Each structure stands twice: as structure tokens, then as C-alpha cells.
């Protein structure tokens, strides 16, 4: 018939005499010509790095193929010009086979990636064209030259098809291996391992817990090699949520522990001091024997573009969800930030820690953020004076202001209630500050400042700031005041403060230098019956820390640090104490 190509004649002949073979060769012929056009595109295409790959501003989501329209001429595509390098190939595909669709605005958008939905739409158009050719096929004869042309097409693409089959087979094998060996389709594993050598110097003439004379060198000064391991299972079900399950084990007890052993009904009695605590140590004997435990269980999710919620089942502290305005040194007691617990953030974020509850983050704008939270470390205990709301609890409200990128300011308020002897700047075994600053019964010696059976309601106020002077120099710090009501007795004032110099990327990418100078939580005054009571030791519990983290390569860092405590147990008459640390951190 006039106007029909050799290929069409051949197709019609085969469909008439050999229907099954004809269908196969018809499809192969058509797909061969489509592949030829695609090969022309690939041959004429400029190098990948020279191509501008962009998405037009008015483009719709890639999976919105329902709005794509079939075009019958390449001239209908407004963004395709005769001078384009792919014009002839597109013209063949559009006008000869009708296998290319355009968007409702008559654009082709040739520089953007092809989605699976769009590929399906194009393939469907091709299959519709195949059906049309099959329907229109008749019994016209075909010449040997036509058969030879089909054979040449098959031979021409034999190498490409063989390579493609090899790649698909390789991908099939790799996919099967991953499916058989994958840990989980929803969970990723991240971990951190700390090896640390530390030692304490000085402290030969001090007063320890209860103002009892002590000598750290006689009973507690030993070089130790300690470890802590964290495994974080990060699970996401929607891509916008995170279930965090943290398993932890370690043997790091405080350096200033009597004989290196802690525990008992009140582990503080076996410490020379609660100051200078390292971020990875613990004074709870049940958690310093390398036994595995769940140290943090939380689930966070976004409820809008400006609001997120984190629910804590165990191990939650306010610094786990709130912005502590100390970006380089606070890594939630990990092995990459400040070596000391005090250097990580304002201690008021630790009040009522290691509990269950909820944290909420509200981003009002780029300049304003609000953090709200409620935690209870007696939430799992049934009883009249326990549970989620009738036992110990702490509630946080915070406003963070960031008027420009380099400056951030936080205003923090924490209200808490604790049963007698259970007020802490931290969870059990992980507090910071002096014994008096944590209002521990018996810490004041033979002249009690307050009775040991006094529950405590507290209001804490904090101001935190961070200012980036340059890319390699950041200054920051905080001040915190806790007004503690010793119920039925009186009131206490506890202060802490710090100034911080941070040097990101010092001596190389990933390096981190820091100098921290401040005072750990210190009891400054107690009032009862309308008069001030005498606090025997009320000097600022000074904490001076210098550290440098060498980032040897990704996943491995080495951090030497020195901590100087010139007024141990808030008494400047005590001998100076120095704690040296060599921390090695592996992360993956």
C-alpha cells in the first residue's frame, strides 16, 4: 500500500502468515527504531557535567502524571527548538510513534530526571501504538530486503542488549543479597565507642562529703582505662518520624571516687567530690559493670512544618529535645563534645533527668523557637507518691531567639518537684555540681543546714548565648539560678555560670578546641524562719577545662583534655585537683 514503510509491510505479512512471530518481530522492530532514536540522543548529548539539570519553577510533582497530555508534533512542545541537539530524535519519537507525552503547559522539560510514573506513561503510549499497528496489519507480502533490514537492526544492538542484560543480572544478584542480609528495612544502626585513660592529681588535703577530711592521693588517685559503648537503633516508619532505641554499656566510674568503687544506698558517700564529672561516667554501681541497658527510648514526629513532638519512654532529659545553645560542645554526653558533663550545657537542663515524658518544639519563625517539656523519673513506679504525675517531675519552658545566623540567645525556665534527698542536676548517678549544690542530706556535716526528710520544689532560671565571631571562633556561655523551696523549712539559692571559647576546625577540618571557665552548681545561701543560715563552704566551685579534639579521620577522634578544680566542694581552702583525660572515640 502506498505510504507504508518496509517495516510496516513486513509486519503485516508476518501477522498474516505467522501471527505469534509477527507480534514479536513487530514489537522488536518498533522498539529497535525507538532505541535508535535514543541512541542518537545519547551520542549527541553533551557531557553530563556540562548539562544544566534543573526543574522549572512552574513544574508539578514528578508523580503527577495524570496531567500529562499526548502530543502529536514536536512543534507543540514550547521548550523544544529546532536548534536543540535532541530535536531530530524527539521528532521521530513524537511524530512517528507517538511515544512521548508533554505536560499540560505544552513543555517537554528535557533537562529534568525521568520519574517511574512518567516512564510508565511513555511506555503505555508506545504499547498503545503497537496495538494500533497490530490492528492495522494485513497480509501484504514482504521482500527479502525487508527481512535483511530487520536482521541488521537486531545485530546492530546485540552488544548493547548483552551489556544491559549483564547489568540487570548483576543488579538482581546484589538486590537478592541485600534482601537476604539486610538488618532492617526501617532501621539503621549508629554507634559510638569511647576508650579513655584518665587520672587525677592533687587533692592531698581536702574536706569531702560531710566536710570529712580526706586525701585523694591516699585512697582514690589511680590512673584508669575505661570504656563506654552506645548503640543507637534509628527507626523511621514514614520518613518524618524517628524511633530511637539506645543500648548502652560501660565501666566508667568517677575519677574522684573513694577506692574506685561506688554504690550503696547513697553512692555520693563514696565520692570525694561530685565535681569534674566526665560526660561518659556514672556513679550508679549497677550501671558501671559493662552490663547492657536501655539508656534512652524515644519517639519523635512532626505534626506540621513548625511543630514537632518527642515522647520519651525512658532515659529522657530536657537536653535531649531542647536547644541548649552550645552547638559545638553539647552532644548529649557523647564522645565528640566537651569532655566534662558540666561543659556540655547549663546544668538546669539536667534537673529531673533520666525519666519519661514529652518534649515539644515550636518554630514560630526563623528567629523564634519555643521548647516545652515535662519529664518524670518516677513515671514507671506505682504508688501514692510516684507515677507520672504524683512523684518527681520537672517541666521546662524556653524561648530561643536568633535575630541573625551568627547569634543565638536562650531564656530557660524549669520547675521541678523532688522527694527528700532526690533533687539532682541530673539523673541518678549522672549529676553535676557540688554535694551542697545538689542539696544532698548529710553533705553539710555536723551542723545541718536543712533536715534530711525535706521534699524540694524548685524554680530554675537560665540565660544561654552563643555568638560566632568567625568561622573558626565562637564565644558563648550561660548563667543559671535555682530557687529551691525546702518544703516546711526554708529556701536555698544555687548558682552556676560558664564562659566558653570554642575553635571549630582548629588545625584542620573536624578539629575542635575549647576553653571552659565557670562555676558548677554551688549552694550560696539558705534561709529559714525569716533569717539567713550560715553556709560553711560557699566559694564558687570553679571549673576550668581545656580540650582539643583531633579528628584523625571520619569516625575516629582523639581528645586530650585537662580539668582544673581550684575550689573543690565549694571550698577554696581545699587543695587544687587536676583531672587529665585522653579520650578516643570511634563512631559509625
Properties at a glance:
Porin, alpha+beta, two-stranded antiparallel ribbon, 2 domains, 8 helices, 588 residues, 16-stranded antiparallel barrel, disordered N terminus, 35% strand, single chain
The CATH superfamily of the largest domain bears the name: Porin
Number of domains: 2
**Can you give the mean pLDDT?**
82
Structural class, by secondary structure, is alpha+beta
CATH structural fold name of the largest domain: Porin
Any low-confidence stretches, pLDDT <50, length ≥5?
Answer: 1-7, 17-26, 38-66, 259-266
Helix content: 10-25%
Which descriptor suits the 3D outline?
elongated
Largest sheet: 16 strands, antiparallel, barrel
Q: What is the chain-wise order of helices and strands?
A: HHEHEHHHEEEHEEEEEEHEEEEEEEEEE
Physical arrangement of strands within the biggest beta sheet: 3-6-7-8-9-10-11-12-13-14-15-16-17-19-20-21
Rg of Cα set: 35 Å
Distance between the termini: 70 Å
CATH architecture of the largest domain: Beta Barrel
Q: Which CATH class of the largest domain is shown?
A: Mainly Beta
Q: How many β-strand runs?
A: 21
Total of DSSP H or I helical runs spanning 4+ residues: 8
Strand proportion: 35-45%
Amino acid at each position: 500500500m502506498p505510504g507504508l514503510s518496509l517495516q510496516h509491510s513486513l509486519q503485516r505479512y508476518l501477522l498474516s502468515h505467522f501471527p505469534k512471530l509477527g507480534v514479536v518481530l513487530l514489537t522488536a522492530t518498533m522498539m529497535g527504531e525507538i532505541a535508535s532514536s535514543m541512541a542518537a540522543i545519547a551520542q549527541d548529548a553533551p557531557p553530563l557535567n556540562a548539562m544544566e539539570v534543573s526543574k522549572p519553577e512552574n513544574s508539578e510533582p514528578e508523580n503527577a502524571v495524570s496531567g500529562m497530555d499526548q502530543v502529536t508534533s514536536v512543534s507543540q512542545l514550547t521548550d523544544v527548538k529546532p536548534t536543540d541537539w535532541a530535536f531530530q530524535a524527539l521528532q521521530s519519537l513524537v511524530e512517528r510513534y507517538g511515544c512521548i507525552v508533554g505536560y499540560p503547559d505544552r513543555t517537554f522539560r528535557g533537562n529534568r530526571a525521568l520519574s517511574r510514573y512518567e516512564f510508565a506513561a511513555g511506555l503505555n503510549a508506545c504499547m498503545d501504538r503497537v496495538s494500533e499497528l497490530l490492528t492495522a496489519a494485513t497480509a501484504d507480502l514482504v521482500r527479502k530486503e525487508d527481512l535483511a533490514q530487520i536482521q541488521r537492526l537486531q545485530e546492530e544492538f546485540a552488544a548493547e542488549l548483552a551489556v544491559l542484560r549483564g547489568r540487570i543480572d548483576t543488579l538482581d544478584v546484589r538486590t537478592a543479597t541485600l534482601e537476604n542480609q539486610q538488618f532492617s528495612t526501617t532501621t539503621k544502626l549508629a554507634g559510638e565507642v569511647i576508650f579513655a585513660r584518665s587520672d587525677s592529681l592533687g587533692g592531698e588535703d581536702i574536706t569531702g562529703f560531710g566536710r570529712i577530711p580526706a586525701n585523694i592521693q591516699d585512697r582514690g588517685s589511680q590512673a584508669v582505662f575505661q570504656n563506654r559503648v552506645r548503640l543507637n537503633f534509628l527507626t523511621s516508619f514514614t520518613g518524618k518520624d524517628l524511633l530511637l532505641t539506645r543500648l548502652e554499656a560501660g565501666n566508667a566510674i568517677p575519677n574522684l571516687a573513694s577506692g574506685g568503687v561506688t554504690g550503696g544506698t547513697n553512692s555520693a558517700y563514696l565520692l570525694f567530690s561530685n565535681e569534674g564529672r566526665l560526660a561518659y561516667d556514672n556513679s550508679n554501681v549497677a550501671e558501671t559493670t559493662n552490663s547492657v541497658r536501655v539508656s534512652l527510648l524515644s519517639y519523635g514526629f512532626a505534626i506540621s512544618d513548625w511543630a514537632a513532638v518527642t515522647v520519651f519512654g525512658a532515659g529522657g532529659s530536657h537536653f535531649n529535645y531542647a536547644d541548649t545553645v552550645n552547638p559545638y560542645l553539647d552532644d548529649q554526653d557523647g564522645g565528640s563534645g566537651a569532655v566534662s558533663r558540666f561543659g556540655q550545657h547549663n546544668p538546669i537542663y539536667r534537673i529531673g533527668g533520666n525519666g519519661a515524658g514529652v518534649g515539644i518544639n515550636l518554630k514560630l519563625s526563623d528567629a523564634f523557637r519555643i521548647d516545652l517539656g515535662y519529664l518524670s523519673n518516677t513515671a514507671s513506679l506505682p504508688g501514692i507518691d510516684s507515677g507520672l504525675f504524683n512523684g518527681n517531675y520537672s517541666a521546662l519552658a524556653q524561648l530561643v531567639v536568633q535575630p541573625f545566623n551568627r547569634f543565638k540567645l536562650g531564656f530557660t525556665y524549669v520547675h521541678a518537684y523532688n522527694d527528700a534527698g532526690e533533687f539532682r542536676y541530673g539523673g541518678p548517678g549522672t549529676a553535676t555540681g557540688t554535694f551542697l549544690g545538689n542539696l544532698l542530706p548529710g553533705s553539710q556535716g555536723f551542723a545541718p543546714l536543712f533536715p534530711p526528710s525535706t521534699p524540694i520544689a524548685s524554680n530554675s532560671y537560665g540565660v544561654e548565648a552563643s555568638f560566632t565571631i568567625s568561622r573558626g571562633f565562637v564565644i558563648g556561655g550561660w548563667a543559671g539560678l535555682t530557687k529551691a523551696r525546702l518544703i516546711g523549712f526554708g529556701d536555698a539559692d544555687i548558682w552556676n555560670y560558664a564562659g566558653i571559647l570554642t575553635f571549630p576546625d582548629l588545625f584542620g577540618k573536624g578539629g575542635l578546641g575549647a576553653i571552659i571557665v565557670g562555676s558548677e552548681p554551688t549552694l550560696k545561701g539558705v534561709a529559714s524562719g525569716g533569717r539567713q543560715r550560715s553556709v560553711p563552704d560557699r566559694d564558687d566551685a570553679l571549673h576550668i577545662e581545656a580540650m582539643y579534639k583531633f579528628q584523625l579521620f571520619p569516625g575516629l577522634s582523639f581528645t586530650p583534655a585537662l580539668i582544673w578544680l581550684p575550689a573543690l566542694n565549694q571550698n577554696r581552702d581545699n587543695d587544687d585537683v587536676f583531672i587529665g583525660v585522653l579520650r578516643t572515640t570511634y563512631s559509625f
